[in-house]
Structure formats: structure tokens, C-alpha cells
Amino acid sequence: MEFVELTKEEFRKFSEAREDYNIWQSTEMAEMRELSGFHSEYVGVKEKHEIIAGGMLSYRVVLGYRQYYAPRGFLIDFHNQELLTFFLNSLKKYTKKKKSLSLRFDPYIPYKQRDLDGNLVENGYDNSDVFDTIVSCGYKHHGFTRGIDLTRECRWMYVIPLEGHTEDSLLASFERNARRSVQRTIKYKIYTKELDETNVDEFIRVAVATGERRGFEVRSADYYRDLLRIFGSRGHAMFLSAVINLDCYLETLHDDAAKEQKVIAECNEKLAKNPDSSKMIKRKSVSEEVLASYTKRVEEAEKLKTERGTELTLSSSVFFVNKNEIMCLLAGVYEEYKQFASPFALHWQMMKYGMEHGIKRYNLYGISGIFDESADDFGVYLFKKEFNGEVIELLGEFEVQLSPMNSVYHTLRKIKYGK
Q: pLDDT per residue over 172-197, tens digit each?
């Protein structure tokens, strides 16, 4: 085995052919980070002239030293102890020669199998052997963290398997509320449209409004335009909006109202013959309540149409797409349109896209790993849980110090930022 530097093109071909390909370990992600002032390098292991392991390294210069990070690294058989040990030890030597402070990475592989409440699954998968090998190579683990840290990639995530499903079987697997919400978006003809460079600002406006409402800072408009240009041009990113046509919506409401009016008329006929029929009295009462709700929704929709036009953008999302998974990177919805449950239309559309293209899973990405009401994201987790997917606990972050100056850097950072 030989540890080597790879060209960008060598790494691109290698990474895209891998079964464990992910968007972080890609030339596109390297290009995105370079726009923020980072530099990129590509390394790998060759055996008989064939690349058998590789990684994209991103670094910036701090105090005259390089600070390396391999996002979701690496593309390697983590269970091949000999290969993993050789790679990690060689990588330490390689980065140390480059006058570096440190090297950190956060593997995109699960740790131990968990159920939907975060409990360990008896006899479930366990990748402790990978953890032990990494630590034995001198890399320090940053802990089995829980919570949301926006400065780091998540350690817990929520995924929905797509393999082996049809549309019907996947929809049937959802919890009742999610299933009905998807069906409601179909009924009211809420549709999705893919955005491009001419209208991606539509997503940006929704994202900013959502961030302001929920108290998080959204990346710049240029970031998302660059993401579309770099990833989208290669089919690895998609921006979608959910849209409602109020004329179609009103037509459906009027049809539903007409059905209830018919039921009420039938009840009145039967009650004229049998005024004491408790069954008809109850049925009429229920239909009158439903009709009242339709009438109210018609009035609200007519008002919206007058004030804002026939076509309304309700929500918008950006997705990373590759042969292994579709990942929802960010989703936003306008508060005033939440009653339409339009995010379900976006998720359902992308799940269908995944099944059509043989993609293995749909990733709703980060959760805190805290599964009770004390979690800041508890409401978001309950939403994700409605899709009846799987909780994934990742290995976490590892780091190796390559110079005593790394301690100096962290001391100065703590003085400046308090962390």
C-alpha cells in the first residue's frame, strides 16, 4: 500500500464511483469551502495502482499553521483495520510535515443502533471496532455529544429508508398525521417546482423569513447561489418550492362543500319522516360543522387571492442529492401559510424522486439526540418522527494535535470567544 496525493480529477472519479460517496467528501464541497477562504488537498491509498481509500482535506492558515478538517471523512473501508490504521497514521505524518496545528474529521458512519426513542437496540449493529481503531491511532474523540451545535455537523440524524418501497407502501408506513398531511397536499393540488438561477431568490426569501421567526441565522444569498451553481450544475443539489393555485384550491373546497350540502339535504328529508332519528341528527350536525369549516376556508382563500394573487409560494427547501441518499439541508415555510402543511408536499416529492432513481434513503438530517421535551428541537423531532424512519447516531468527531501551538491557538480562542 502507498499513501499518495491525488489530483482533483483522480479524487472526483474515485469518490463518485464509491458506494460510500457523500457530498462532504466531494470536489464540489471543496470548491464551496474554497469560496470561504479554505484550501483543498486530496489524498489516498493506492494498491497496485488502484485507489482503495481517499479523502478531501480542507484547511485554513491560522497563526502561520495549517488547520485541517476532513468533512465527513473518509472514503474508506472502516472495518479493514489494516487499511484504516495505515491511512490514519500516514495522514498524521503527511499533515504534520505541512506545518499544521491539528487535523479533525467526523466519519459519516453510524456508531450503535438506536430506536426512535434513542435507546440502544439489543443485538443491533455496533461499530465500536471502528471507534477503537481510530483512537488507537492517536486521534482524540470529542465525546458522544448531544444537542445542537451549529458550528459542527450533527452527530445524530433522522433518515427514512426508501429501498424496497413503492409509493403506496411508503405512504402507508407513515404515522397517521403525516400520511393525512401528504394526502391533503395532493387533494388541494399543492405542487412543487424546481428553482434555478433565475428564481432561486424565492428559496432565499422563505429561508430568511423562517430564520427570523425561529431565531437562527441563515447563510448569505450568495452562498445558496454558489451552492446551486456548483452542486446543482452536476445534479447534486435541488432547490424546490411548494406552490398553491388558489383557483384550484377553491374549486376543491366548493366541491367538498357541495358534498356536505347534499348530505345535509338528505338528512333533512329523512328527518322530515323520522324527526327523532338520533343517527340522522348526529350525521346532520357533523356535516354542518364540516360545511362551516369549508365556508370559512373559502372566505380565507378568497381574501388571500384578492390580496396576494392566484399563485402563492408556501414553502421552499434545498436538497443534496447523490446515488446513496437525498438530504434535506434546509427547509423553510411562511408562517401565514402553515395551515396548508406544504412541507409535506416537498418531502413527499423528493421521496418519490428518490424511489424513481433507486436512491437508498431520504435524510431529514440533524436532530439533537435528546428525545424528551427538554430538547430545543423536540417539536422538530416529533415532526420528523411522523415519517416513521430511523435514528442514526454517528461516531462523532476526532482530532489529532500536530503541534504544541494548537494548545496556544485554543487558549487564545477561548479568551476571545469564551469557548
A: 999 999 999 999 999 999 999 999 99
